[in-house]
C-alpha cells in the first residue's frame, strides 16, 4: 500500500497569520511602521497617529490588529511598542508588501490557469521594482561573499571577462564590477525596460567596467565564442522559456577553462521533499504568480521555481556540462547554485 505523508497544519492559524501579514504590509507601505521606528517608544495611539499623519481611529484599529498578532506590544497604561530591529522591519515589511503586488496579479493568473486561457504573461513592472529593492547592497554583498567569491576563486587572477545573463536592473552586476575593478562585465537582459534602468543607474555609479545590452540569453552572438572566464546566471533559468538555447549559448561563449554558475531558489523538484520547507514556502508563491507564467510563454511547458534543483542540474548535464562541487557542499544536496564547466 502506498504510504502518505501528511503536513497538515492549522488552516485557521495560517489564514490569521496571512491577514496579519497584510495589515503589517499596509502599515509598512503607508508609513505607519516608519513613524513607529522614529517615535519615542512606548507611545500612545494618538502620538503615533500624529507622527504618521493618519486619522486616530484608523491608527487605533491598525494597532489593534498588530497587538492581536503579537507584532506590537502594549503596556498596562495603553502605550505601544514595536519591538523589532529597524533593519528587520525594513526587510520583512518589504517582503510582506509583496503580497499586495501578487494580489494585483490575480486576474491575470486566473486567466492563465484556465484550460482555454493564455499560456502565461510577461513580467509585471511592480514585481521588477520589488526585486530591485529586495536586492539591497547589503544583501548582494553578503550573497557575493557566500556564493560568488568561492566560484571566482576557482580561477587565478582578478582580470576576467564576465557575462551576466538576465541581469535585470543590473544591481548585482554593479556590485560584481566594484568587487572586480580589473574585470570587464557584459550584462544582458531580454527586457528593454530593465536594460534602460540598468544603464541609467550605471551612469550614476560612474563604473566603467560594465556594458549593458538588451539581448536574449538564447541569442548570444557568434563573435563571443570562447570569450568569457565566468558566466553568471542569477535567478533566470527557472523564469526562462529558452533554457536549452541559453545552455547551448553558454557552451559556445565559455572559455575551455571557464566556469558558469546558475543560481535559482534552493527548492527541490519533488513535492515530497518540500514538506514544511521554509525556502519552498517562501519562493513557490512568487513562482505561481510570476516565474511560471513568464516561463510558460515559449513553445514548451513552463518551468518556474517548482522545476527545482534536481531537474535543473539534470538539464545542465544533458547539455554536456560537468557539474563542479565548490566548497564542501555535496552537489546532490538541494542548493541555490550549480557551478558547471565544459567537458
Ligand atoms: C528574477 S529577474 C533576476 C534579475 C537579476 N539577475 C537579479 O538577480 O537581480 C530575471 C531576469 O531574467 C531576464 N530573463 C529571463 N529570461 C531571459 C532570457 N531568455 N534572456 C535574457 N534575459 C532573460 C528577465 O527579463 C529578468 O530581468
Automatic annotation (TrEMBL):
Query: Where does the Methyltransferase domain lie?
Result: 161-266
Q: Name one Pfam family in it.
A: Methyltransf_31
Question: Transmembrane region positions?
Answer: none
Mind telling me which Gene3D superfamilies this protein's record contains?
Vaccinia Virus protein VP39 (3.40.50.150)
Q: Where is each S-adenosylmethionine-dependent methyltransferase Rv2258c-like winged HTH domain found? A: 21-88
What is this protein called in UniProt? Uncharacterized protein
User: What InterPro entries would the database entry show?
Assistant: Methyltranfer_dom, SAM-binding_MTase, SAM-dependent_MTases_sf, WH_DNA-bd_sf, WHD_Rv2258c
Amino acid at each position: 500500500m502506498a504510504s502518505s505523508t501528511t503536513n497538515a497544519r492549522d488552516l485557521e492559524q495560517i489564514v490569521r497569520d496571512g491577514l496579519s501579514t497584510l495589515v503589517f504590509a499596509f502599515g509598512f507601505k503607508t508609513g505607519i511602521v516608519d513613524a513607529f521606528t522614529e517615535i519615542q517608544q512606548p507611545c500612545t495611539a494618538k502620538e503615533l497617529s500624529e507622527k504618521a499623519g493618519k486619522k486616530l481611529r484608523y491608527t487605533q484599529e491598525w494597532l489593534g490588529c498588530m497587538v492581536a498578532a503579537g507584532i506590537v506590544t502594549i503596556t498596562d497604561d495603553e502605550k505601544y511598542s514595536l519591538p523589532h530591529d529597524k533593519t528587520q522591519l525594513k526587510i520583512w515589511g518589504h517582503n510582506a508588501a509583496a503580497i499586495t503586488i501578487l494580489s494585483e496579479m490575480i486576474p491575470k493568473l486566473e486567466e492563465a490557469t484556465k484550460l482555454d486561457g493564455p499560456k502565461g504573461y510577461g513580467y509585471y513592472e511592480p514585481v521588477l521594482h520589488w526585486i530591485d529593492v529586495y536586492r539591497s547592497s547589503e544583501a548582494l554583498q553578503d550573497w557575493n561573499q557566500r556564493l560568488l567569491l568561492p566560484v571566482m576563486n576557482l580561477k587565478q587572477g582578478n582580470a576576467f571577462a564576465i557575462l551576466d545573463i538576465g541581469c535585470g536592473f543590473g544591481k548585482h552586476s554593479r556590485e560584481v564590477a566594484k568587487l572586480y575593478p580589473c574585470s570587464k562585465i557584459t550584462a544582458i537582459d531580454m527586457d528593454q525596460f530593465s536594460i534602460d534602468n540598468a544603464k541609467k543607474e550605471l551612469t550614476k555609479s560612474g563604473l566603467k567596467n560594465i556594458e549593458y545590452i538588451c539581448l536574449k540569453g538564447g541569442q548570444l552572438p557568434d563573435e563571443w565564442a570562447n570569450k568569457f572566464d565566468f558566466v553568471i546566471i542569477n535567478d533566470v533559468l527557472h523564469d526562462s522559456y529558452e533554457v536549452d538555447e541559453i545552455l547551448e549559448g553558454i557552451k559556445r561563449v565559455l572559455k575551455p577553462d571557464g566556469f558558469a554558475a546558475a543560481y535559482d531558489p534552493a527548492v527541490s523538484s519533488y513535492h515530497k521533499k518540500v514538506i514544511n520547507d521554509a525556502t519552498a514556502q517562501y519562493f513557490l508563491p512568487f513562482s505561481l504568480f510570476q516565474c511560471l507564467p513568464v516561463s510558460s510563454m515559449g513553445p514548451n511547458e513552463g518551468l518556474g521555481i517548482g522545476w527545482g534543483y534536481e531537474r535543473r542540474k539534470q538539464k545542465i548535464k544533458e547539455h554536456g556540462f560537468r557539474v563542479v562541487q565548490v566548497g564542501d557542499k555535496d552537489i546532490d544536496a538541494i542548493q541555490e547554485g550549480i557551478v558547471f564547466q565544459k567537458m
